[in-house]
Design brief:
Layout lengths: L2 E5 L5 E5 L3 H7 L7 E4 L6 E2 H4 L15 H4 L7 E5 L5 E6 L4 E5 L3 E4 L3 E7 L9 H13 L5 E7 L5 E6 L4 E7 L6 E4 L4 E5 L3 E6 L3 H6 L5 E6 L3 E7 L2 E14 L3 E4 L3 E7 L3 H6 L5 E14 L3 H13 L19
Antiparallel strand pairs: 1-2, 1-3, 3-4, 5-6, 6-11, 7-10, 7-14, 8-11, 9-10, 12-17, 13-16, 13-19, 14-17, 15-16, 18-21, 19-21, 20-21
């Protein structure tokens, strides 16, 4: 049996067997500040550091993990698959959930359940009116009022993969790195960890809303977990430190809250009419991050539509000549 030496309240040195320590602590003979020593220790030390179990009451919880205590989003792992036409594979631990736009799922492993719900699930205690408001916001952006929730109900890690409806790049964003908020074009959201709140942000200036390419409404992502945004073509990230960046209005994907978004005229009248860059350009100025895409879906759709409406052949120098002979 191990022997412990301690300094009593009157300054005298005493000793006791280890089995009696709990009784001495209960009576106050040994308190957290009492100096104790036992064989193997170099110096005397307070009982609170040497014998902390003596002063932990029944059912005392362990220290709080402060990094996780304030976290509201599930912590998910991911892998981007592909180069030019990408999709994202999400790895879910048991009971972890990822939310996604309806129809975005590509494949999932056995053990993952999915359920269509109204809203993003970031406010599970919201009443009927709260859910109704959330539905209204999504309806304003033109998206479905329903979202699909994918949950790992198995005992091990499971995977689910999401792909966007048109070719492009999947952009992973840790919202915690950007003060918990990101503004993006209204159809850019692909999927996110449960706990991410999807809202809307209105452009403050009429000109920005009328000519900004994205209308008056931007999508706002809030949370502290991972979110995934889709963009057409190649994506580039620009870091602004007070500089001003002029961008084609359709090429803007997302930006952080420190960036001011506005619209200005694209040069003089001749440049506006014959320059091919449109009548207006988006201006981004401030401190923060901006993501730009090389091939907005609207531009891609316009090229395809114009090609077929003009009767041009696929790579043919003589265009729609085949139509004259009834080939189509």
């Amino acid at each position: 049996m191990k022997t412990w030496h301690y300094i009593s309240a009157d300054g005298a040195q005493a000793q006791t067997d280890e089995e009696n320590l709990n009784d001495l602590a209960a009576t106050g003979t040994i308190n957290p500040n009492t100096q104790v020593w036992s064989e193997g220790m170099q110096n005397w030390a307070p009982a609170s550091t040497t014998l902390p179990s003596l002063f932990a009451g029944p059912g005392t919880p362990p220290p709080i993990n402060t990094s996780a205590a304030g976290r509201r989003s599930h912590e998910i792992d991911y892998k981007i698959i592909g180069e030019a036409i990408q999709m994202v594979e999400i790895e879910l631990d048991p009971q972890e959930t990822v939310i996604a736009e309806a129809g975005a799922m590509n494949y999932m492993e056995d053990g993952i359940s999915f359920e269509t719900k109204m809203g993003d699930g970031s406010e599970p205690d919201a009443g009927f009116m709260g859910k109704l408001v959330s539905m209204g916001k999504r309806a304003i952006t033109g998206e479905s009022v329903f979202m699909t929730h994918f949950t790992n109900i198995g005992s091990g890690k499971k995977h689910v993969t999401f792909a966007a409806p048109y070719p492009g790049t999947v952009l992973p964003v840790s919202l915690a790195e950007f003060d918990g908020q990101l503004l993006c074009q209204k159809d850019a959201f692909l999927c996110a960890a449960l706990g991410t709140k999807l809202g809307i942000a209105f452009n403050k200036k009429i000109g920005t809303g009328l000519f900004g390419g994205e209308g008056f409404i931007l999508q706002k992502l809030e949370g502290d977990g991972m979110a995934f945004v889709h963009a057409g073509g190649t994506v580039i990230r620009k870091e602004l430190k007070g500089e001003k960046l002029l961008v084609d209005t359709g090429c803007l994907v997302a930006f952080t809250t420190g960036i001011n978004y506005n619209i200005e005229r694209a040069g003089n009248l001749k440049s506006m009419v014959f320059g091919g860059e449109g009548l207006f350009l988006a201006t981004l100025q401030g401190t923060g991050s901006v993501w730009l895409q090389s091939m907005p879906f609207a531009r891609l759709a316009q090229r395809i539509t114009s090609m077929y409406s003009s009767g041009k052949g696929e790579g043919s120098a003589i265009g729609g000549l085949g139509n004259l002979f009834g080939d189509r």
